[in-house]
Amino acid sequence: MALARTWSVGLAGVQGAMVEVEVDLAAGVPTVALVGLPDAVVRQSVDRVRAAVVNTGHEFPLRRVTIGLSPAAMPKQGSGFDLALAVAVLAAAKVLPAGRVRDLVLLGELGLDGSLRAVRGVLPAVLAAARAGHRQVVVPRDNADEAGLVEGIEVLAAGSLGQVVAHLAGRGPLTPHERAAASPPPPGPDLADVVGQAAGRRAVEVAAAGGHHVFLTGPPGAGKTMLAERLPGLLPPLDEQAALEVTAIASIAGTLPPGAPLVTRPTFEAPHHSATMAALVGGGSGQIRPGALCRAHRGVLFLDEAPEFPRSVLDTLRQPLERGSVTIHRANGSATFPCQAQLVLAANPCPCASAAGDTACTCSPLERRRYQSRLSGPLLDRIDLRVTLPPVTRAAWLDGTGRPESTAVVARRVRLARATAAARMAGTGLSLNSQVPGRLLRDRWPVGRSSLALAERALERGALSVRGFDRVLRVAWTLADLAGATTPGPDQVAEALGMRLQRVAA
């Protein structure tokens, strides 16, 4: 009997879990038994490994081969186990020294010719290996920069199974990979391109400063999409922890930009209104993948033509928006993804979507109400800022007196406002006004009753829910931070209430 062990990593959501790969060779009819809850892709790896081993110049053992993936109760998914299986088989067959592979972590998919191909989820896998105490990992060459983001672990990049075998046999050592300096990402769209729309520009600035959700309504051509696309540029760059979280999600989703292993800017996701529930939140029939909401973590999720989305799909956003994470359950397991994204909804005021606004609308009042009611009340109750954009006038478009403020100018104000809020909330574990629980907001940072008079009257007459009242307070604090005030005054509360109640502004 010959036995060899090595290591790989399985993924559950954005978390990696160490998987020990054991191969036992015994006398008997030549066959391969793969145990440990493998999915279809992992089961097919036996054929890929056999072909890769043979085409690399070695013999696949003609014995009874038992391959065990431990822990046995954890589902194993994906093609990232191929390299570990091949190396363990060769070690069990005495082609490689078993001692050299015992503590090695191997990730990668094998081609039939023995080439090593990139796989998804390398960053969370290498992070899991580092937490487990491993100090060396072998990855495909195309994943090397991504794996090199993890401190304290040596990354060996290989292009084929033959190179890995030569390294482990001592014939051609692989050199540790040095991550190249990433090129700066290209600049995003500039807020200076948006003509007029003072209310819309103010809304995205407030949203960026406080992390608030936004609902923009207005006729076609009013600038709803332009404003949403420029919101990520107003957000500060991601810190190290946030960048690793966002990069891990992009790695699992397969959306990591080539040549940019670390995502340092807030992301922008804009799914089409035909997106399914799984596409928006996450899921899938096999391996659970993050949806658009999760891919927008620490960034912006933009839903254009929001009433055209199925109502049941939109309502799945309610709980994740509150919790900042989503857990997707399937019969064979579950996965949790972070989703602290800013939601931006955009909608036309009616089905006919006349560019001239209400003056040329052909919809009846009933049609307008039906169209607007496609967005449920509980979902809209979670939106802090609701702004109606008027049509862009000829004077604003052709006879503007000056260039509007650029993204850089507004982003500086946003950074100062965020720094003010973070200093005020130091020691609470919070950094944005939108994150503060209502009870803590009222008890620790009370606002004078004279300043809250308008909001209290709106609460009394039913125009605001209790949740809405707290959200008005949060927005008022953001407005105070932008204005450099120590506490919200009547003006900030009135402006926050106006944004909440969707008053039309010029």
Automatic annotation (TrEMBL):
<dbReference type="InterPro" id="IPR025158">
    <property type="entry name" value="Mg_chelat-rel_C"/>
</dbReference>
<feature type="domain" description="AAA+ ATPase">
    <location>
        <begin position="210"/>
        <end position="393"/>
    </location>
</feature>
<dbReference type="InterPro" id="IPR014721">
    <property type="entry name" value="Ribsml_uS5_D2-typ_fold_subgr"/>
</dbReference>
<dbReference type="InterPro" id="IPR003593">
    <property type="entry name" value="AAA+_ATPase"/>
</dbReference>
<protein>
    <submittedName>
        <fullName>Magnesium chelatase family protein</fullName>
    </submittedName>
</protein>
<dbReference type="Pfam" id="PF13541">
    <property type="entry name" value="ChlI"/>
</dbReference>
<comment type="similarity">
    <text>Belongs to the Mg-chelatase subunits D/I family. ComM subfamily.</text>
</comment>
<dbReference type="GO" id="GO:0005524">
    <property type="term" value="F:ATP binding"/>
</dbReference>
<dbReference type="InterPro" id="IPR045006">
    <property type="entry name" value="CHLI-like"/>
</dbReference>
<dbReference type="InterPro" id="IPR020568">
    <property type="entry name" value="Ribosomal_Su5_D2-typ_SF"/>
</dbReference>
<dbReference type="Pfam" id="PF13335">
    <property type="entry name" value="Mg_chelatase_C"/>
</dbReference>
<dbReference type="InterPro" id="IPR000523">
    <property type="entry name" value="Mg_chelatse_chII-like_cat_dom"/>
</dbReference>
<dbReference type="InterPro" id="IPR004482">
    <property type="entry name" value="Mg_chelat-rel"/>
</dbReference>
<dbReference type="InterPro" id="IPR027417">
    <property type="entry name" value="P-loop_NTPase"/>
</dbReference>
<dbReference type="Pfam" id="PF01078">
    <property type="entry name" value="Mg_chelatase"/>
</dbReference>
